[in-house]
Amino acid sequence: MNLTPDPWIWIAAFLTLMIFSFLYKDNPFYKFAEHLFVGVANGYYIALYWHNTLRPNLYDPLSAGNFIYFVPLLLGLMYFTRFIPRIGWLVRIPIGFMIGWGAGISIPAYFQADLLKQLQGTIVTPNSFLNPLEGIWAVIILIGVVCTLIYFYFSKEHTGILKPTARLGIIFIMIGFGASFGYTVMARVSLLIGRIQFLLGPWLGLIE
Amino acid sequence: MKWYDRITQIDRRIIYLLLTLFIILPLFIPFKIPQNVMPQTQQLFDFVDSIPPGDEVVLLALDYTPQTAPECHPMAIALLKHCFARKVPVIGVSFDPQGPGLAVEAITSVIREVNENARTREDSVIYGTDCVYLGWKSGRVAALLQMGESVPQVFPVDYYGTPIDSLPLMLRVGNYKDVAIAINIASAAYPDDWIRYPQSRYGVKVGAGLTAVMAPKYYPFVQTGQLSGMMSGMKGAAEYEHLIVKHGYTDDSGTAETGMNSQSMIHILIIVFIVLGNIGYFFSRRGVKQ
Amino acid sequence: MKRTIPLAICLIMGVVMMIQFFIPHPISLEFNSTILNWIIVLFAFALVLAIGNLIRHHSIKIRKRKHDWPYSIVTLTSMAAMAIIGLFWGIEADSLFQRIYLNIFAPLSATMFALLAYYMASAAYRAFRARSLEATLLLAAAFIVMVGFMPFGQYISPRLPAFAEWIMRYPNMAAQRGIIIGVAFGAIATALKIILGIERSWLGGKE
Predict the structure, then answer these.
(1) Distance from CA of A171 to the nearest CA of C (A)
(2) pTM, 2 dp
(3) N or C: which end of chain C has fewer CB within 10 A?
């Protein structure tokens, strides 16, 4: 065992153990660590927002006499009217501006990236069968996509032809979710491995 | 209590203890199982490997958080090592506010490591000339679109507050035209926006490094070519680490590859638990029927 | 007026942004560029608002001596300390700010997430039952992926990794694509409803 003399690593290790103590039950150490996290995280955001966005993208241009930036400043300040009941409705102006913008740009983007391209990738053409096996897989994809979409189509009752197709759709979805579950296990375990590697390595010096 | 009831009621503390032990033990008994590299990781590696040195840049969007660092941090380190070894300049950006701390750590630690082993200027990496970290920006989608017109409009200064026009690398990078590929290492669905906006509008090639939770969703984008390859979770990171060692770009494998042994053990353990639970369920149901 | 003006702004922004996507004229580009610069800044203000709310929440808790109020002091003081350190002493790679990020912020955040591994293992053991055909398929796909993608999978059967990859590339992909297309239709419909003022829940309140 080769314990580190670095006080920062000791702090990190103790905080890690404080959070792990929650596995036993909720306790003051965990609560302290949890509240410390919320505080430090928000303090971090404040400094970051200032240094990386508000100063270079608002304060500096305004100081350089670029007065058009008064518009976003004014719109931004309108958010705070939320706290003044008499003029509280003004907060809707920056929100309307933002969500109108977001909705406007998202329509062509979704259409192109998530609809057109994905539909293109699903279409089976004679060329798909140049390699017969690939052709079969392409047909499976086509059937899977159509049946999944039918399963999620709730505007019409799933009777007649819709019933077996929706049923096939749910089978594809379950295989997909199963695969996702396998991946989720991998993800969650990775995070725990990371913490244990830290405790055993940099802190206790038991592993390299 | 019947045996089949007993195996469905193992105390959670025993599960926790076994889980911890199964992670710790493989870390002490290092054994190496060869990585089978997934096609999409190979595809990403091949893409980066084919970028001509010193011309176009790799835009690395480091949007992972400490929560997902064990999966994503090794990806960032491996990609940086790969690019630096090939003399491909790297520009780092972040749009997740939790990202910059880890991005700074990844970039500075890899630059330090490369320079410690460098013998000549050619071998070393100089901040500002070979690599720049532009830092974080709010309004991700707006920033992504604006970078297509002008990167300096979005990032007038780098993370450290240095004016962008005083960094030699940034003098030759105006917008996405100078970017060979944008690789988004992300712990949330940010690659969607890279595909929807910079790619749809400006035709940028996009690659991704994803947490394993997100990976299944992105297979359709690999098939359509909207993603030029991706790394999935710790496994993807381990594969990339394996590839850069195999091609002689570095000689030490990273943390992901060692973590994979624990990962394998845990998978077996969880499968055993699920099987036990199901055996118990199956027999208890039969018991009820009888 | 209190509803019409915001709705009109939303409509104008939505329509203009949609149109400019298809018009690469210099004036359109210049206009778009200005709007984008504003939006970047506006998003930053949203955080200022969130921080304001957080301070208010914890101050009230302390003032009224609500349950667990001493922890609110921890939150407020650590937030103030971190903000001051970052604002006045800088955020460089070797700064105190970066050290606190790496040794306090990062381990706390990472460990909270790491707890999920325990809960997930325990929940999978208790709840993951092959009760029906669908659940059995889910279970089988999960097992194949969990074994096939691990390095040891190839020793169980050399074909296992390829089979796991096949599941991901075909059945999984078909389902994921169906969901992506479905979500895209939903997103486009919602965006249109917002622009046209049919969906107004964002206005909040009655007035």
Answers:
(1) 6
(2) 0.94
(3) N
pLDDT digits over C111-138, tens only?
999 999 999 999 999 988 988 999 999 9
Question: With contacts defined as CB-CB under 8 Å, which chain B residues touch A105?
Answer: 141, 145, 197
Range of the domain at B72: 35-252
User: In angstroms, how far is the first alpha carbon of chain A from the final one?
Assistant: 11
Q: Residue B62 above 80 pLDDT? A: yes
Same domain, B103 and B211: yes
Q: What value of ipTM does the predicted structure carry?
A: 0.92
Domain boundary among C127, C154, C183: C127
Judged by CB atoms within 8 Å, which residues 62-121 of A form the interface with C? 68-69, 71-73, 75-77, 79-80, 82-83, 88-89, 92-111, 114-115, 118-119, 121
How far, in Å, CA of A189 to CA of A198, rounded? 14
For residues C41 and C48, give the distance between their C-alpha atoms in angstroms, rounded to a whole number.
11
CA dihedral sign, ordered B19, B106, A199, C151: positive
Residue B181 region, left (φ>0) first, then alpha (ψ -120 to 50), else beta?
Answer: beta
pLDDT digits (tens, 9 = 90+) for B37-56: 999 999 999 999 999 997 89
CA distance C124 to C147: 16
Q: In degrees rounded to 5, what are phi and psi of residue B132?
A: -140, 140
Could you tell me if B4 and B83 lie in one domain? no
Integer angstrom CA distances of residue A82 from A74, A88, C41, C71, C203: 14, 5, 19, 27, 12
Using CA atoms, how far residue B209 sits from A17, B19, B41, B136, C76, in Å, is 29, 27, 9, 18, 35
Q: Percentage of residues in chain B with pLDDT exceeding 70?
A: 100
Residues across chain B: 290
Q: Are residues C149 and C119 in the same domain?
A: no
Pick from C101, C127, C153: which residue ends a domain?
A: C127
Task: Encode pLDDT of A1-24 as tens digits.
Answer: 789 999 999 999 999 999 999 999
| Count of domains for chain C | 3
pLDDT tens digits along C58-113: 999 999 999 999 999 999 999 999 999 999 999 999 999 999 999 999 999 999 99
Distance from CA of C189 to the nearest CA of B (A): 17
A73 — alpha (psi -120 to 50), left (phi > 0) or beta? alpha
What is the domain extent for residue C78? Answer: 1-89
